[in-house]
Amino acid sequence: MPTLSQSLTAPRTTGCRNSQENPLIWPLLSLLQASSDSWKVHHLATALRQQGLLHDLDDNPDKDLFKRNFLLMNALYELQEMLLPGQWLQVQAMEIRLMSGPTGNMELELARDIALREYYFNWDNYDTCANVVREMLQSFWNKYQDYMGMQPISSMHKIKALQLLGLDVGASSRDIRRQWKRLALKWHPDRPNGDAARFRLVCEAWQVLREQTERAAQATPQP
After folding, report:
1. Radius of gyration (Cα) for the chain, nearest Å?
2. pLDDT grade, residue 4 (50/70/90)?
3. What is the DSSP letter of 9?
4. Is residue 98 classed as helix, strand or coil in its secondary structure?
5. pTM surpassing 0.85?
6. CA distances from 137 to 71, 84, 131, 199 (A)
7. At 88, is the secondary structure helix, strand, or coil?
8. Is omega for the bond preceding 23 within 30 degrees of 0, making it cis?
């Protein structure tokens, strides 16, 4: 029987888990790597705003606060999965901290927050349609690409993108997403032995492949 930590990385069959990766994962990783102190969600939001990577999401102040919190918690739980088992990201709204490992039993730590984690993984709870979520995340990606100095997406060919990710032409969308997350985490400039240039390239490659996959899906006639 798989452990809870193994089951977290298995594909989810319920709820909407948007195929567009949350770009706040990467600047959050930089903030957490840069400090051994704990963070609060609203402090992370302020830091991202100062970097120009997070903006107002709704005219209604209460909804704006909820949506900003949703995006941050979604990114933090995604990052928590990605870092296992090498590092432990404690995700509590008032105490967010990157550690070498949990202070207690990892399985118990994960089980404690499983309902909250699944809530924030389900984009239906963001309270807007899938197209709006996709456009919003693409806008964030564009901001992050500018922030990191990435090249325009159209400058890379699909074959080159697959080669950069170490994949062949038969790679599935799931294979591409999994490999991109692995390499992006490996080369993130704030990770040990990270490489900003390689990080930018694998992010660019994933964006190329993701956009081409989405265009192909839209062009396929529906039964």
Report:
1. 17
2. very low
3. T
4. strand
5. no
6. 10, 24, 10, 19
7. strand
8. no
132 burial (CB, 10 Å; 0-12 / 13-18 / 19+) is exposed
Alpha helix locations (H) across 1-105?
4-7, 25-34, 41-50, 61-83
**Residue of higher predicted confidence among 128 and 98:** 98
The predicted pLDDT at position 138 comes to 86
Q: How far, CA to CA in Å, does 52 sit from each of 20, 90, 132, 137, 177?
A: 20, 25, 20, 14, 26
* Two structure tokens written together for 7: 């089951």
Looking at residue 132, its amino acid is V
Distance CA 159, CA 168 (A): 8
Q: Which phi and psi (to 5°) does residue 2 adopt? A: -70, 150
Q: Rounded distance, CA 193 to CA 214, Å?
A: 33
Q: What is the pLDDT of residues 135-184, one digit of tens each?
A: 888 888 888 888 887 766 556 788 999 999 999 998 998 899 999 999 99
Question: Taking a C-beta distance cutoff of 8 angstroms, is the pair 202, 167 a contact?
Answer: no
Q: Which neighbouring-strand residues pair with 58?
A: none
> Which residues share a beta bridge with 91?
96
Q: Are 68 and 60 in contact (CB under 8 A)?
A: no
